[in-house]
Amino acid sequence: MLIFKTNVDSPFEAAKIINHLGQSLSIPIDANFDLEDCDRILRVHSTSPLEQLAGKVEELVNSAGFNAEILRDEVFEDKIPKRQQKLSLQLLCSII
Fold first, then answer.
1. What integer pLDDT is reported at residue 78 of this predicted model?
2. Bridge-partner residues for 32, per DSSP?
């Protein structure tokens, strides 16, 4: 999953961008916005390699007149096995 910080602030704009992404990308995606989040989050799910897709999504959102900035920590989280993520979280919690 890719997570982007955006400046999209209306459901109409969000629907327009999701439609634009769906028409412009040659792979199937599942995209949604969380406009109630302070970062107006755009989440994109795909089976495509995330690094390649991230740049294309940013480019398409920007070409539609909005800003999109990948939240990098979220990109690399998908590459870490779930068991290791859990252990990392436990270790972090034990340090705090």
1. 52
2. 43
